[in-house]
Amino acid sequence: MNNRDGRSAAEYRISCVDVMACSRTVPERGAHGLWYMPYRIEAFNEVAMMPLIGFNERTRLGSTVTSCEVNDRRIGRVHVESASGFYAITPGAVIDCSGSAVMSRLCGADVITEQRYQAPSQVFFLSGIHTDDAPTLELAMMRALMRATASGDELVVGVKHIGLLHGSLRDGSVGVKVTVHHRPEQGEDLNELNALGHRTALGIIEFLRQQVEACSECTIKSIAPEIGVRTEQRPVGKHILTQTEVLGAQKPTDGVAVGAWPIEHWGDGPGADMQWLPEGEHYLIPAGALESAAIEGLYFAGRGISASEMAIASARVIGTCLSTGYAAGMLAAYHALGKSRDEAIARLRAEQLPH
Q1: What is the pTM of this model?
Q2: Alpha helices in the chain (DSSP H)
């Protein structure tokens, strides 16, 4: 089936060029030779939804998988709850992008767990900012937070770091990311974490009004409805990506997705523990890290791939998530069509890898 512009769903990829054009942003150079691309969330959503235009009869947004049947290591019927009721599907393949190994757990497969996960962050957006100098504004926020932490200011209790969303300062509005000290434990209620994130955002916004001159008249534009959970339990794949592979910039012959971000681990310290790849280098994520070791036809993408806690601290960033998402989609499509896994890997390597 084709959509309105005549392209099939398989012909779409979320392009950084498209997101950049929609956001009206350009890549910026960071530390250690690392480049990143600022973008507006609204622009990303618009580009990401494009493949679904014209396929709405097959799209069920806001649905929850409640259970699934497994027969001879294969997923049978998948039971789903949506706003319109319950239904069941019999998929040719499944891609789990939940970030918490939902499908592996429902199928009874092993998962990778930690006693405590990385500290989450809350994002919010402000308007009424009286400066267009992002570096100076961010520095003023960080210095104010350090002073307030040292003095025991109640408005910043539990906050470990504050920063701007790169490229978000525009026309008096800015995006802010606040990381909390709390590190979620296995099985912790996400609703409580979301409530913590919302309370933290409200306290920090009032604090910024009082302590940062450029924010003295700022107002809340929006607060992200969910706190940014960095890591949760992950599935066990045919391969588990490791810290050694990331920092060693390893490039296995079945590598199908590209990673270049440093290991950015938010533990108990005041900031992130950064471990950098050699400048100008990247690593490849093998197909096995996107494939279930226990269930045929089950694939993973995003921050929920098969990886150690330190390795996912690099692979969870959005650029790499786009790469693993496309790779998982291609592997799943080839599987559902009864085509060769090796063919899918060869195509992905030709399309995805730097030349």
Answers
A1: 0.89
A2: 16-23, 41-49, 102-106, 134-151, 190-211, 243-247, 309-315, 318-336, 341-352
